[in-house]
Amino acid sequence: EVQLVESGGGLVQAGGSLSLFCAASVFSFDNSAIGWFRHARGKQREGVSYINNSDGEKDYTDSMKGRLTISSDNAKNTVYLEMNSLKPEDTAVYYCAAQILNPYIYSDYLNQHEYTYWGQGTQVTVSS
């Protein structure tokens, strides 16, 4: 069974930084896409970033571009999300999700519906 475990969330002041971690087990990590999503109270869950562990392709949501860096360590089955210049509106539960790659179809990996496996989330709170 695929398991995803997020860690690294917490409380930070506006302008500060946090690094989130997503550790995957029992999974074809090298042939997967890993996405980060966030769900703020009263809002819909939105895609934040993703990385393709096969070819290294990555992308970020427009609202956080320039403030995020996603990376992957295939030897450790772990994806990292570095978040800088955090704002109070970044407060949310952050989830990682995983999907086996299918090279024959186009996939938008910032879309939550592309993903089969989900972690339980880690809370990020940014105080003003």
Textual characterization of the structure:
- With 128 residues, the protein is mainly β.
- It contains no helices and eleven strands.
- The chain has strands spanning 3-7, 10-13, 18-25, 32-39, 46-52, 58-60, 68-73, 78-83, 92-100, 117-118, 122-127.
- Strands 2, 4, 5, 6, 9, 10 and 11 form a seven-stranded mixed beta sheet that branches.
- The radius of gyration is 14 Å and the shape is globular.
- It starts with a strand and ends with a strand.
- The mean pLDDT is 95.
Radius of gyration, CA atoms, in whole angstroms: 14 Å
Order of helices and strands: EEEEEEEEEEE
Q: What percentage of amino acids are in beta strands?
A: over 45%
Say how many strands there are. Answer: 11
Query: Count the helices. How many?
Result: 0
Low-confidence stretches: none
Shape from CA axes?
A: globular
Cα separation of the termini:
40 Å
Portion of residues in helices?
under 10%
Rounded mean pLDDT score? 95
Classify the secondary structure makeup into a structural class. mainly beta
Main β-sheet description: 7 strands, mixed
Helix and strand topology:
Blueprint: E1 3-7, E2 10-13, E3 18-25, E4 32-39, E5 46-52, E6 58-60, E7 68-73, E8 78-83, E9 92-100, E10 117-118, E11 122-127
Question: What key attributes describe this structure?
Answer:
128 residues, mainly beta, seven-stranded mixed beta sheet, four-stranded antiparallel beta sheet, 0% helix
